[in-house]
Amino acid sequence: MLDATSGPMIFSVSSGKGGVGKTSLTVNLAFALSQKGLRVLVVDGDMGLANVDVLLRLTVRKTIRDVLERGEDPLNAVVYVEPNFGVLPASSGVPEMVDLGPEEHVLLGNILKSIVRHFDYVLLDTAAGIGDSVIWFNTFATHNLVIVTSDPTSMTDAYALIKILSKDYGRKRFYLILNSVVSEREGLKTFDSMARVADRFLKIQPQYLGFVPKDKAVLKAVQEQVPFIKDAPWSKAAIAVGGLADRILKLKGE
Ligand SMILES: Nc1ncnc2c1ncn2[C@@H]1O[C@H](COP(=O)(O)OP(=O)(O)OP(=O)(O)O)[C@@H](O)[C@H]1O
């Protein structure tokens, strides 16, 4: 793990359950942070089924796999969406990249350490589930974001992820983002029930980072392969992501 007080802030974005909006929120949060003039890197941590490049319609020439297997310079693999917003893409349809072994994780750690210093904020968009690579990215991060919807299966899977990370890996600070909720009230209700269970059974107090409403602008932007905060800056989802980015900036030093 990197020191949270010196290098860049490194956020893992995980959820346990798939399809709850990790990648969509990651690219939009990154875009929002880059609009504030910060240097942002998104690492596609879904290394067997990459999606970040798809959501941003990027032309990918080199991926994390080329860096790991062929020793390519990782900085040459970074694709720039904006001058201060880079993406380190992953490969797609490569089963052996889904869960790397311990030695490959050490190598990946060294590779990431060599490039994150060029950025102020790094977002690690992980795969769904609780596989080794998901856990690894979460332990590499300085801050753990967990995306949850009010769907009970999402809450259960997010709790399972938090449980493993806290009990087996000593992670204690989790920042929850409630996605696809109909109102802030629903988001807060979902957060409260998760926080109560985490406090009671894991003795940890997750923090509420904010909510993103269910919004057609998100679906449209996914279809058009552009960030919704660019495509529909006045949509409810875009305004909510702007608020999340402001809160992330305030975490500096925490
Ligand atoms: N706030 C929202 N409002 C409406 N639709 C949303 C919202 N957030 C996500 N979605 C939709 O949910 C779908 C899945 O989103 P996304 O691919 O970002 O999820 P994911 O968690 O990264 O999935 P995976 O686990 O497969 O990586 C997308 O089609 C997206 O449009």
Automatic annotation (TrEMBL):
ATP binds at K17, G18, G19, V20, G21, K22, T23, S24. One of its GO terms (cellular component) is cytosol. The keyword Plastid does not apply. Keywords: ATP-binding, Nucleotide-binding. GO terms for molecular function: ATP binding; ATP hydrolysis activity. Pfam families: CbiA. GO terms for biological process: negative regulation of cell division. It comes from the Bacteria. InterPro entries: CobQ/CobB/MinD/ParA_Nub-bd_dom, FlhG, MinD_FleN, P-loop_NTPase, ParA/MinD_ATPase. Residues 12-227 form the CobQ/CobB/MinD/ParA nucleotide binding domain. Gene3D superfamilies: P-loop containing nucleotide triphosphate hydrolases (3.40.50.300). PANTHER family: CELLULOSE BIOSYNTHESIS PROTEIN BCSQ-RELATED (PTHR43384:SF4), SEPTUM SITE-DETERMINING PROTEIN MIND HOMOLOG, CHLOROPLASTIC-RELATED (PTHR43384). This is Site-determining protein. The lineage of its organism: Bacteria, Pseudomonadati, Thermodesulfobacteriota, Syntrophobacteria, Syntrophobacterales. The gene is fleN.
